[in-house]
Amino acid sequence: MLNANGLPQRALVIGGGSDLARAIVRELAVSGPLERVALLGPRRSSLERVAAELAAHLDACATFELDLRAATSSIADALAPALEWLGGLDSVLMAAGTLPDQEVADHDPRVVEEAFQVNGTGPAVALTVLADHLERAGAGQLIVLSSVAATVVRRRSYLYDASKAALDRFALGLADRLEPAIGVHIVRPIFVATRMTEGRPRPAVSLSAEQVARATVAGLQARRRIIWVPPLARPAIAAISVLPRRLVRRLPL
Amino acid sequence: MADHDGYRILEGWGRTPRSRALVRPVATADAVVDALRSPGPRPRLPRGLGRSYGDAALAAGGLVLDTTRLDGPIELEHATGVVRVDAGTSLARLGREVLRHGWFLPVTPGTKHVTVAGAIAADVHGKNHHRDGSIGQWLRRLWLATTAGVIELTPDDAALWATVGGMGLTGVIVRAEIQLIPVETRFVVDREVATRSLEETLEVLQEDATVRYAVAWIDATATGRHLGRGLVSFADHAPRDLLPATLARDPLELPNERVVPTPPDIVPTGVLSRATIRAFNTLWYERGRRRPASALVDLRTYFYPLDRVAGWNRLYGPRGFIQYQVVVPEAATHVLRSVLTSLAEGGHPSFLSVLKRFGAPSRGIMSFPRPWWTLALDLPARRPGLEALLARLDHEVLDNGGRIYLAKDGRLRPRVFRAMYPEHEEFQRERARLGALGLLASDLSRRLELD
Ligand SMILES: Cc1cc2nc3c(=O)[nH]c(=O)nc-3n(C[C@H](O)[C@H](O)[C@H](O)COP(=O)(O)OP(=O)(O)OC[C@H]3O[C@@H](n4cnc5c(N)ncnc54)[C@H](O)[C@@H]3O)c2cc1C
Ligand SMILES: NC(=O)c1ccc[n+]([C@@H]2O[C@H](COP(=O)([O-])OP(=O)(O)OC[C@H]3O[C@@H](n4cnc5c(N)ncnc54)[C@H](OP(=O)(O)O)[C@@H]3O)[C@@H](O)[C@H]2O)c1
Asked: What is the pTM of this model?
């Protein structure tokens, strides 16, 4: 169950091999009551690596294969054994994602399709199954790793931006449907130094996975629906959104 | 917050956590048995007036039986003060009706807005525990609804002692027979002593073990050498010949209560901030120091000061609050000090803090009270760092032979719980015997992995 401080005992993580997922689960386990975690993702190797790192902080951690590019029914099927192993579900963390190379995507429709599958369609399908589960259970929380990218469109990453926007909007709709019994928390960080952004030019301001983890946990405790990390990202995006498109197009965002 | 088809969001008095369940009012014992037997969502759980702080009266996804309509006529034996009362009757009504005839509740919690069954299920204690024990001690009979029907229990039955303090997990209490205490007036004589440190507070609290009511209010925002300073109150029911002539007419009739209306549900998170909590505590302490040492106080003012503001729990804003109540052995006063210091220094000031001495252990299998010191603190919940700090304090309490009160809890962890309440195994056996396992459960029992 979620405790009186809004923190879970059992969690299911999609994108369980991700750097941000690992940091958030760690924070929930070290400063909260989290003790049983199911990690789901496409590659055993990265799931096992994270599971090994988290083992010291958890009672039990298991890994399950799940590829968000798969057909709808296979996604639902892949969730079932993880839910059964957990025995109860307090928290869902959606941390899967891909950051495609826009220059390649400009000319390759398959990259476009895959980005939408991993960032948009797949998560929406999985969240639909899990939202139903939580709704029937009558309690719990959904944590969705969106991004500030979901709130702007940039020439040099519009595929990522658009596919994250799809998930962000979908999660807002889920929040309207599920709150207040189920907490829905949409996390919108700026650039975070993780495996995903490795090798990309680092902007003037960037975050560590641990900073995002702390902000996420504080945000869900505060019952916040949208968690901007850092909080200043919100007015910054608001300012950009009123600029004329001609100008935004040329900004080095 | 009722949705379609009877589903509702339920919260405890601390307003966190919350969960959604199907809520069905039950007005007769037969309706309770039917509801337990009927098909439909599980688990099942009885709920009273929702004054437990955490998740004891919540059952996410299940069927919650609202027992507050089980409140038919009260049967009082005028000569003996034995009363038979339906389980959903509030202590407010019971107290008022029996007082007219010169009787009063043998044990009462700090609010009168609890049901008789809720009080039994938590085996509540009052300011007189050191002398009179908890409510279970005053029970003569109990009627418990299970899927097998309604069974009558006496203090010779193990099932009664599983139900007393059993947090609704053994069956649904539908009626109880309780021994009341005689009183001559609706007043208590209250003597108050201001103390300057924790040592002094503890010393003064021990001074007079024969006085019926003894409790200390603590200024939990005071630190350093003032840590644990407070106001210790000693009281007993006022005899009729103590009343001045102006009050001596109708000494047993309670006047109508004036209640301040509920604050709106839009109180921002910051109203009870560190600064306001500190200011309130300092003011209260200074005011208390200047009050006359002894006074004649109305029962309601003495026992239920918080009931004057309906819905005062909303003052904590949308994040709600946690009541952290521990009991530790006589020698473990360093734990009290550690709890007070850690929370004050960690930036988690307690708005309202109460310290008292418990007497002999209560008899319920899962009853909370046992010797010696019990400290209760109200903490704004869901603040960064609070959970980790309380988890550390849980261990300190456990390591020193103490434990946490389940009626106030919403966050204790399963392993620590099992060590604090080794009696849980016996409790589970009684639940199995009563057919309650697999049927009755709460968010609390699932969080603690009893279910
Ligand atoms: C301001 C305040 C002061 C308080 N002071 C004290 C105090 O001094 N001492 C103390 O001991 N407690 C105190 N409490 C706690 C309170 O007395 C208990 O939580 C009590 O159980 C609340 O009763 P309720 O009717 O509101 O029950 P609920 O909160 O609705 O339920 C509490 C538990 O009782 C069970 N239950 C309810 N009805 C039944 C039934 N018919 N059959 C079986 N189980 C049932 C529920 O399943 C649940 O586990 C205080 C609470 C408040 C808000
Ligand atoms: N890094 C940032 O700057 C940043 C900023 C804002 C938001 N975010 C978001 O935060 C989340 C986590 O990202 P991260 O930074 O931690 O990067 P990461 O470590 O690369 O994590 C991405 C995860 O997605 C998984 N994944 C990839 N394809 C998948 C598929 N087909 N099915 C299921 N899972 C798949 C990956 O699995 P493998 O481990 O097997 O590769 C990986 O675990 C993402 O949603 C990302 O969009 C990141």
From this structure: 0.96
